[in-house]
Design goal:
Radius of gyration: 16 Å
Order of helices and strands: EEHE
Largest sheet: 3 strands, antiparallel
Structural class: alpha+beta
Strand content: 15-25%
Helix content: 10-25%
Shape: elongated
Strand order of the largest sheet: 2-1-3
Number of helices: 1
Amino acid sequence: MTGALAPTKPLTALDRCDRCGAQAYIRATLPVGGELLFCAHHGRQHVAALRDKGADIQDESARLSETPSIARDDER
């Protein structure tokens, strides 16, 4: 065993917040095993405490502020 963490997979629309059921943007992998998924709102509430307890945090909440690009007719 190398001690390296396995790469985490990106969160998708099928991943849901364990607290409220909204789309998850934050994954907390616990040091004892298992993971918790949170929407951005609940992630902000819990991520600091989880990090202090040694959880590995995957935060994809920046995706919420991305603007999708729309191709103009002359670019198609």
